[in-house]
């Protein structure tokens, strides 16, 4: 079987990790809005969590039954990383926690500086444990979505490479990086004409963005096709990396949808 072909199912559930920058600059407004960046991250993350819960729901004679096909692992970080909720939460528990907290992940731009290396080191250790679990050994590989809006005081390149070497029987773990800001040389208007980043020249000239670009996995053909078919990024080029710059709230909304594009839409999901 070719890599990145496994469908999400109860027998082979999907694992989605998130490393979310909650440093002081997250309290700044997202461009074109009057709300801080962390609030937009929380809103759109909630939309995806609830979509994944819907994909894990079945209607039976006794009503709706939740049979988790997704697990999530969320790390929030600034100067130090911390876990949101429990390790490898099933999607029902994650949505319940998010909802009971007032549709919040507890982000607030309160965690000081930006230590990306520490956050990804924590993610690496946690993913290693998860991939030793029989539940995930044959699953579509985990996707780690890293969202940040500032310069990191540490270089996470080496640990990102270690994360990308972890694998299931269907392929290597995928690392996606999203930078909230605009410091690249790529010209596009929005999600509808976003072509993806293929070269360093497009991702530069900022050294921080170049580092995030290099840390990112190549987009597998299966995910690229799903992103095109779903109209998320219809112009995404072959050879693009899972690296995104978030210029507007609409771009952020589309970037977060990448976690739901791992070959697991309703019509592609095994029950």
Please tell me about this protein's structure.
There is one protein chain. By secondary structure, the chain is an alpha/beta fold. It has one domain (14-268): 3-Layer(aba) Sandwich (Rossmann fold). The chain is built from 8 helices and 10 strands. The chain has helices at 37-55, 91-100, 116-131, 157-165, 200-203, 207-215, 221-229, 249-256; strands at residues 14-21, 57-60, 63-66, 70-77, 81-90, 143-148, 167-168, 171-172, 174-180, 243-246. The strands form 3 sheets. The protein has a 6-stranded mixed β-sheet, sandwiched between helices. A hairpin with a 3-residue loop joins strand 4 (70-77) and strand 5 (81-90). Helix 1 (37-55) packs across helix 2 and helix 4 runs parallel beside helix 6 (207-215). The longest helix has 19 residues, at 37-55. The mean pLDDT is 92.
Please summarize what this structure is:
This protein has a single domain, classed as Rossmann fold, CATH 3.40.50.410. The protein is built from 8 helices and 10 strands.
CATH superfamily: von Willebrand factor, type A domain
Overall mean pLDDT: 92
Q: What structural category characterises the helix and strand content?
A: alpha/beta
Tell me the number of structural domains: 1
Number of strands: 10
What about the largest sheet?
6 strands, mixed
What is the strand arrangement across the widest sheet? Answer: 5-4-1-6-9-10
Do you know the CATH architecture?
3-Layer(aba) Sandwich
What is the fold-level CATH name, i.e. the topology?
Rossmann fold
Low-pLDDT runs of 5+ residues are: none
Q: Which percent band covers the strand fraction?
A: 15-25%
Measure the end-to-end span.
20 Å
Rg measurement, Å: 17 Å
Quickly count the helices: 8
Helix content: 25-40%
Query: What is the CATH domain class?
Result: Alpha Beta
